[in-house]
Design goal:
It is built from nine helices and 15 strands. The protein is α/β, with parallel strands linked by helices and 347 residues long. The structure holds 3-amino-D-alanine.
Amino acid sequence: SAPHVAIVGATGAVGEEFLRVLKQRNFPIGKLTLLASARSAGKTLKFGDDEITCEELTEDSFKGVDLALFSAGGSISKKLGPAAVDAGAVVVDNSSAFRMTQGVPLVVPEVNPGAIAEANIGLGSDNVAGIIANPNCSTIIMLVAINPLHQAVPVKRMIVSTYQAASGAGAAAMRELEQQTREALEGEVTTKDIFPFQYAFNLFSHNSPMQPNGYNQEELKMVHETHKILGQVEDADKMAVSATCIRVPVMRAHAESINLTFDGTMTEDQARDLIAAAPGVSLIDDRDNNRFPTPLDAQHQDDCYVGRIRRDLSQPEGVGLDLFVCGDQVRKGAALNAVQIAELLVK
Ligand code: 2RA
């Protein structure tokens, strides 16, 4: 029978995208429970033609739940993810709480779907309940674009610069960007509640905590999550990855510039053909018209869009490649990826 699905953090940007994606993809649902904070409990949300009332999230919210999609922040996942598993639910967690935990699969369905079966997590009688972690949005968008190439010719070094949307910092950051843009056009920016400096007509180093080594947490997530998702455990096998993450005044789609060094030969034509044939990515790579991916092309879309594929002239022929990718941070970067994981469980 169709699973009893619970959404934790139902009223957030990702929570609402879960509902849109589940409906659009006709995900089989026997019963749907929406869970939110005490402040948001009682709100009703649309699910297709139905209106569903959010219940207050508690330890006891998971009785009878088969599948729980979490997107309510790391502390809620840490506190209640295990309680959901104890109640027999499979948890797909969008927070960073368990991503690097040994035994918790970290999954991009186009890249490493097998990690779920390896953990024997599933909804069947011979499966176990457990937590499956959804990777960080910037990692998902990067890997869905480069994986087709890496599977053909191993990537040994990847340098990525990101241009990350406001949605990654939450709905309040999106509202602040809009408000500040108005204020800037009127001559004076006064609203600075989310970030301590102007966001409108500006860009800045990603707002995640800075580490002693000079990288911020967002950048280190892209490094470490890449290794786990690609199954690179031994240091000698690990792709050399360096990231610079920047927040830019864009609403909900991330953009990333990626430079690759291959352990073998990868021409730009081979790369273009591999990406054109790969799931989850589409090409916008029109040099004649200088037409390449933009965040507005990618927002609200399932696919990530790849362009600017070109030989890296600073490296020997066939060894280095540059490309540019845009992907919706709320959709493929969070809700869609999690629902695609859930689809693997009900297959
Ligand atoms: C960001 N990756 O864009 C994060 C989303 N939690 O800030």
